[in-house]
Specification:
The chain is of the alpha/beta class. The strands form 2 sheets. Strands 1-4-3-2 form a 4-stranded mixed β-sheet, covered by helices on one side. Strands 5-8-7-6 form a 4-stranded mixed β-sheet, covered by helices on one side. It is globular. This is VOC family protein.
């Protein structure tokens, strides 16, 4: 019945820091839509952004900054991702490590966004 994920919603406490991280650090594109809404575009998906306490309706029952654990497949080799993170002063919390992805083995690093969401960046192993 379900084919793929179209978008998800990230709730942040600090809109500007969040936008900076997902655009400057992760290289996603900021897209404006609707009445004052924004999203981060990457590949064929997007992440809609809600600001804590100012969420758009309908919304999750308990929108909580820092509750996400996301895994992204990189568009460049993981060693280049690691070098970019180091250059930007973004600490890698763990990795690179071997993991099991949705469709194949992956090699991953873990870091945190400004709201302390866990971000896993991976490549096919």
């Amino acid at each position: 019945m379900i084919d793929h994920l179209d978008h998800l919603v990230l709730t942040t406490r600090d809109r500007e820091r969040c936008i900076d991280f997902y655009t400057r650090v992760l290289g996603m594109t900021l897209e404006a839509f609707g009445a004052g809404r924004v999203a981060f575009k990457y590949g064929e998906q997007k992440i809609n952004l809600h600001e804590y306490g100012k969420e758009f309706l309908p919304k999750a029952a308990q929108p909580t900054p820092g509750s996400l654990d996301l895994c992204f497949i990189a568009s460049i080799p993981l060693d280049e991702v690691i070098a970019r993170l180091k250059q930007l002063g973004v600490p890698v919390e763990e990795g690179p490590v071997a993991r099991t992805g949705a469709n194949w083995p992956i090699r991953s690093v873990y870091l945190r966004d400004p709201d302390q969401n866990l971000i896993e960046i991976s490549e096919r192993a």
